[in-house]
Amino acid sequence: MVGRAVTLEAAIRIKRNGFTLDVALSAAVGETVAVLGPNGAGKTTLLRALAGLEDVEGRVTLDGEVLDDTSRGVHVPAEKRRAGLVFQDHVLFPHLSVIENVAFGLRAQRQPRAADVARKWIDEAGLGDRAEALPRELSGGQAQRVALLRALATGPKLLLLDEPLSSLDVSIRAEVRRELTRQLASFNGVRLLVTHDPLEAMALADRLVVLEHGLVVQSGTPGEVTARPRSRFVADLAGVNLLRGEAHGDHVTLSGDASLAAPDAGEGDVFAVIHPRAVALYRTRPDGTPRNVWQGQVDSVDLYGERVRVRVSAPVPLVAEVTRAAVSELGLNPGASVWIAVKATEVSVYPA
Amino acid sequence: MRRARTPAAIGLLAGLGLLLFVLPLAGLILRAPWSQALAELTDPTTTMALGLSIFCSLTATAIALVLGIPLAMILARTRGTVRNVLRALTTLPMVLPPVVGGVALWLAFGRRGIAGSLLYQAFGIQIPFTTTAAVMAETFVAMPFLVIAVEAGLRSLDHRYEEAARSLGAGYWRVLTRVTLPLLRPAIFSGAVLCWARALGEFGATITFAGNFPGRTQTVPIAVYLALETKPEAAITLSLILLVVSVAILVGMRDRWLGAL
ipTM of this predicted complex? Predict the structure, then answer.
């Protein structure tokens, strides 16, 4: 972090109905940070907290200004924070036209000629002909853009986006994503978005923060995160098998007493990652070198074009990726008995 | 869908119930002295009562808006016991016999009442048997309709609109006036119309607390009641006016109350 002008720093805790969100994160001007996590991980609560809409414990600073500090009793209310929040379903004011929605924040700031400034934003976004439309007359993509303009027009230092693309139709998502990338790049502040969609996160973000059950489980660039998953959620999104166990030099003891041979596994609590392409399936017990061999049953078979993912329940449950031809040759129907083999050198181990 | 047949007995009872509504209305319309209606309408007693009724009911509605919306806002924010108590207090006038309301108002604001005696001693103000009393009686009886409607509107409002406004830099009053109240407009409107209709028809509390002084406290319902013995034509004409107003309200708000008719 040294040498970077970090402008958002947050270390907060929110307890509500038996759920605890405990997050520390920082973000700098010019970078887009995506908080990625499954539904219910606390992503929206985190955004709302940064926007000043939730009671938090802890400390939040933005560009040197303390926004929250429970130890000193500081809480800057939402309307005094320079944080623009874009809601998942936009929450445009239904009784106001597009131009009045965009001008709303400018009027609140008592800016002269708010309508003129708002019109400029709308024209630049190519929405000039929709200026007088009401939100209910807009398409999903247009509403998303207006919601973003409304937040940007107030000149925030922090832009918070809640699932910016997920409420949109799949057919327009790619187009809106390109537009969003362009607008994010031109916004000169801290950009933070939350999403449950890995693709959205990878496409828009420079850095990922993975949130699960209210806790940060991993952070880093998209490449770093997917190369070394630290949670089932990330492993699934990267499409790899993730196992956790105790390393003992040349093997890893997994739950249920299964053992996984892996060279240079080290010692202690570790994650082990096996790519599905490295998992080989046989009808009879294979001869040869594979050190990791188990017998199991086919659980499910999913087709992805020419490739097929086969989930096998065995002492070590794994997903294997095979060709379509292999499926018919080996008779890989759910319930079929099958042997699994993984070369020890295909197992990548790193500390948990 | 094929439903079970409705027994004849149910239809008969329903018909009797409907008749109870329809017959009096038919009587009113059939017995109306149409030829004299214009003369009755320009009669000073009638015009005075009409003018006073309009003034009092509109004033009562205005007061209900000013006091009732904040009350609804507080109600919508409370939970549990506090809410139940507040709600019972505000809705009591809806179920209380209006005469009892009038007596209660008289006991509170009469010359010897708990608040009335203070007003009289401090400022020499007497409320009973004045137009003020008529307005107060109507407000007392009608305001709950507005409070209930606005509270329901507030509870079903998506508060994220207010949060969005706050995150855009709007302070409390700007959020209230530019977002909350505009979004509540349908609820406020229907509440105000119900409130006004109830105030316009108010009789029991008004005659008890404000009495019957032509031009001061004699509103249309009171004039109707008194005219029935001396000048039935006038009573019928005034009744018709109230009926027309009621039907107009019903038609005007049919989307809200009667669904898609």
Answer: 0.80
